[in-house]
Amino acid sequence: MLDTSQSSPRIRGMFIGGDWTPAARTFDDLNPSDNSLYARIPDGTAEDMRRAIEAAHAAFPAWSGLHFHERARLLLKAADIWERRTDDFCAAAMAEGGGWHGKGMFEAGYVSEVFRSAAALCYQNIGEVLPSEHGKFSTATRWPLGVVSVISPWNMPGILTARGFAAALAVGNTVVLKPSEDTPYAGGLYFGEILEEAGIPAGVFNVVTCSREGVQAVGDEMIENPLVKAVSFTGSTAVGRHIAAKAGAYLKKACVELGGKDSLIVLEDADLDHAAQAANFGSFMHQGQVCMSTEKILVHEDVYDDFMAKFLARAKKLKTGPTSDRDNVIGPLVNARQAERVRGLLEDARAKGATFELGGRSWDNFVEPTVLTGVDGSMNIWNDETFGPVAIVCRFRDEDEAVRLNNDTEYGLTAAVMTRDEARAMRLAGRLETGMVHVNCQNINDEPHVPFGGVKASGVGRYGGRWSLDAFTELRWITLDRGGRHFPPVF
Ligand code: NAD
């Protein structure tokens, strides 16, 4: 089915201090399905970011001083406006990000729940009362930090941007957002439109867009500026390491959610039809461009042949092409650089002896669903996050080998285990070095109120529900002395 609604948005400028502000230059934002121009985006500078940070700093006292239910009300209003504009977001995510229509609809629905769950945070308890040696009223209470810098990726521009800032706003911080240069509208300026309509006070939420060429200077300002108190980053491990190291040097809080090389383990007692469908979704949803994508499928040798037959039969049916045709479940990779990177990984695997069970063809920004076997640690694709529609399938003999293969990566985001034996799955889950484990589901799972995050090179910190409070508030010990503290008489 052809979709003709993918027209360009009206870009009004960057959203700074409540005003739509032009930049001195613009950069081209392309539709990855055909590399046509989607929009011309303001190419902001470090100076623009400095003005946004100053606006956010100026807005902080009033925003953090609002009654909590007023902040909640604004977030609930944003959720309603977001929901009303579902089609606009979906069109933008398809044309600017190259996503399939179904992914856009899922993402749109999720974002309104991110706003609603952030509103619910306003009603959480904000501290504890502690025993005191001196009979004081001794409290540990949470306080907003001030200005929070948010840097978001392109692959789920709605969810990952909203997740990066909604909880921060709810608890009284103000925000400067820099979206990815690949989705500056769907992951950035679009949020400015939504929050402006919701009535966000000037300066509480700011969006500065910039090209890849300008990102180093703009990104540095987002950490080095003394008015910034914390950084919320979602993106690649390479950039995340740089951000976390810089935040450490400037003693700023940082929550960094990074890449993954996630495995789905199929034990010999699994429901193989379910496992094959789950693996197909986990591996190829959004062309494998999800941090939690199933990159390695580890299958017990007793059921390997049966599983492969079912998995390949499903994967073969996925159609690849421009997302303006809704039958194309596999759209383009987000840009030529990513497509070239995935092609490089496939060529390296081919040269070193991997077997292509399915796919392998690639053109323009497209890579068709590809299934590899015979992959080993000498191949880059065993170690590097592929972030493309490629699944590696590997057989194992026993649980120890499955655990070893799962943990044989610098990453540690999610793992999935397929089995009819829940007790066995729970034992196994404890041995898998990941921040999240899903039993009888594939790897891609997230909900706005759960502690989402990885271990090892997949990140530090957790987003979601009350766990976001650790990222976006500081704890203060505040006591009230009621005459119980006595001092040595010599004083
Ligand atoms: P990326 O690291 O290239 O870019 C992420 C963001 O960082 C973008 O906004 C980019 O402009 C910005 N950036 C780049 N260099 C910067 C610098 N020097 N200073 C400041 N900001 C800078 O990642 P990407 O290609 O946009 O996203 C894909 C990656 O993100 C994958 O590795 C994926 O696994 C990861 N990811 C992780 C999660 C998670 O929750 N763990 C979720 C989605 C994506």
Q: What's the arrangement of strands in the largest beta sheet? A: 14-17-18-13-12-19-20
Can you give the helix content as a percent range? Answer: 25-40%
Number of strands: 22
Q: Note the quaternary state here.
A: single chain
Kindly report the average pLDDT value: 97
Number of helices: 15
Task: Quote the distance from N terminus to C terminus.
Answer: 84 Å
Strand content: 15-25%
If you consult CATH, what is the topology of the largest domain?
Aldehyde Dehydrogenase, Chain A, domain 1
Assign the CATH architecture of the largest domain. 3-Layer(aba) Sandwich
Biggest beta sheet summary: 7 strands, mixed
Describe this structure in words.
The structure is a single chain. The protein is α/β, with parallel strands linked by helices and about 500 residues long. It has two domains: about 15-260 and about 460-475, 3-Layer(aba) Sandwich (Aldehyde Dehydrogenase, Chain A, domain 1), CATH 3.40.605.10; about 260-440, Aldehyde Dehydrogenase, Chain A, domain 2, CATH 3.40.309. It is about 40% helix and about 20% strand. The strands form six sheets. The protein has a seven-stranded mixed beta sheet with strand order 14-17-18-13-12-19-20, sandwiched between helices. It has a six-stranded mixed beta sheet with strand order 9-8-7-10-11-21, sandwiched between helices. A three-stranded antiparallel beta sheet has the order 5-6-22. Helix 2 (about 70-85) packs antiparallel against helix 4, helix 3 (about 85-95) packs across helix 4 and helix 9 (about 270-285) crosses helix 10. The termini are far apart. The structure holds nicotinamide-adenine-dinucleotide.
